[in-house]
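Repro:
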Amino acid sequence: MNNCESEEIVEAANIAISNLLPTKSRSLYDIAYNRRNILWLSCLIIYDNIDISKFPKLIAFLKRTGDGYQAKKSKILTKGEIDRFLSSADDKEFLMIKVVLILGIAGACRTDELVNLTVDDIEDVGSSLIAKIPNTKTKISRTFVVTDVGNMLELFRKYLSLRPPHVKHKRLFCTTKQENVVRSQLARIPWEKFLV
């Protein structure tokens, strides 16, 4: 058997394979078969112009190293821990964190949603707070209510009264320096101080 005959056999096999699926199903099959379902593979192709499918040893290595991986469980505060923190933590040092915790749990907010909250987004109606989050990650604004359980509204009102009156920005949370609320806006939630 010479090289010419083997090329003819390969070509005949490729033609037979292409005729296995009906023409209507072929396009859907090609899309599903060639789909990159892992985000970082897509990023490699888009940003770095690297097609990982050309490196079979790397794919095998990644599959081997991924076996047995277990994600680290997030630490979650219990209701008792939250109540103890809200009642016993010093307001001079942790008032902003208390308000962040109250709003974050009541509205199931992400940290960037909390940082971007403005004074206009929260309405005090006496017996409760109505908070609106206009810019969410899912692009769907949502509204939630914080009721007066414990001293939650009192903590929020205390924080709002300590906020400087002539602040140029509308963000709810301002930075704190040496237990004083400063006029500059908060860029991120300082969790390190809270988690120690």
